[in-house]
Amino acid sequence: MIRYSSFLLTLAWLTAILLLPGCTTPTADPDLNKPLQPLTAESSDLVDKFGKRVGEEMLRAFIENRYDGFVEFFKDDLRARVSQSDFQQLRSVGTLTGYEYLNVFRNPHSATYAWKVRFETTEHGKTVAFDSLFQIMLVKQDDDYQVGGCRFQ
User: CB 3.0 to 4.6 Å from 81: which of 22, 54, 91, 113, for a disulfide?
Assistant: First the structure.
C-alpha cells in the first residue's frame, strides 16, 4: 500500500521536474549521470547546515534580484536549463517579503529543505499577501553537494 504523503511528495517532485523550463531528456554525458552516493547519518548534521545556508542564500538572491546568486549552487545541467529570463518570470509572481525555515526531509540520496515564504502583489490597487512553499533538493554527486532541484509551490 502506498502511503499518501509519500505519493504526494513523489507526485510533487515529478511535477517540478516535468515543469522546469527547458526540461530535456537526460544527457548522455556520463559525468552528469553518475549514481548519487548515500547521505550517511554522520554527514546529516553538516549537510543540513549547508542545505539551510544554501536555501537562505538563494532566497536572499531572489529578493535582491541576483540571478547568479540564485543559481550559484545548481548542478551544471540544472543551471543550463534555468535562464535569467526564467528567473525574472518566476520573480513576476510577486515580491518576496519574508521566509521561515520549516524542515528537512531526507532519503538515502538527497535531502529536501522547505521554507514557508511570503509574497506580496498588487491586485486592483490593493496589496495582497500570500504564502507559498519553497523547496530545494540537495544531492551528493562525486563528494560534492549541489542543488539538484528547487521550486515554489
Answer: 22
Task: State pTM to two decimals.
Answer: 0.70
* Nearest alpha-carbon partner for 146 in 110, 103, 99, 108: 110
Bridge partner list, 138: 111, 147
Please name the helix (run of DSSP H) or strand (run of DSSP E) that holds residue 147, with its range, or none: strand 144-152
pLDDT digits (tens, 9 = 90+) for 104-115: 998 877 889 999
Structural domain total, the chain: 1
Give residue 131's domain range: 37-152
Query: What does the chain come to in residues?
Result: 153
What are the cell numbers at 127? 496589496
Rounded-to-integer distance, Cα 87 and Cα 77, Å: 16
CATH number of the domain that residue 130 is part of? 3.10.450.50
Tens-digit pLDDT profile for residues 88-136? 999 999 999 999 999 999 887 788 999 999 999 999 999 999 999 999 9
Q: Let me know if 137 is exposed, middle or buried by CB neighbors in 10 A (0-12, 13-18, 19+).
A: buried
Can you tell me the distance from the alpha carbon of 137 to that of 153, in angstroms, rounded to the nearest whole number? 14
